[in-house]
Amino acid sequence: MEQNEEKSFLECERWWIFAILMTAAGYLGAFTYSIRGGVFCNAQTGNFVLLAMALGNADWGRAGYLLIPISAYFLGSIISEILPNLVKKTNILRWDTMLIGIEIIVIILLGFLPETAPYQISQVAINFICSMQYNTFRQAQGIPMATTFCTNHVRQTSIHFTKWLKHKTPESLMRFSRHALMLLVFVLGGVISTVMCRLFMGRAVWGAALILFIGFIDLLYADLKTEKGQLDRKPRGH
Length: 238
Hints:
Layout lengths: L1 H6 L7 H21 L9 H12 L3 H31 L4 H17 L7 H18 L2 E2 L2 E2 L6 H17 L2 H31 L5 H21 L12
Antiparallel strand pairs: 1-2
Helix pairs in contact: 2-6, 2-8, 2-9, 3-4, 4-6, 5-6, 5-9, 7-8
């Protein structure tokens, strides 16, 4: 039964794909905060807090500035709701695969920007792709997971650790370990990014493209070979 259930998941739902995405997200988060304006582009809670503080201090310029990443994130979610249906009609690749390809292209282009370029270019682009990624990849083998931020992973790690202490069930241990892994790789991505930013400045962003490329190749192979007849099948959570 477990083997049949395991086979029922698409490649884009595998936990290792989510781990790759979380590593890249940690990398991009450290990149934008370290050398691209000190804003959070993976998620928007921090930016909304900063927006509220700016409004409270009557710092209208800062408030307007923060609306840029927030708006880009909003737009990314809208587009990631519209494009999958259009991509499905081509019957060539899954939207999930194409999205990672788009992310890689955007990141490569960002690496060519001069250091004098406005920070908003990188902020808007990364907000945009992180929003689409978060809205596209929703469940890792049946477990709801975010791929761009950590808050829910912290919550789920504590919940399932507590359940394991009480009941010692394999399911709670598995879920605890999966969420803990996502936290670990996110931090790892951030650590690597911080070091690379010191060494290479803006071109350090290419490290995220290398990480994503691993997942892209895996998904591309699935679309063209192992899951070629399932391109119209929706991942769980959609």
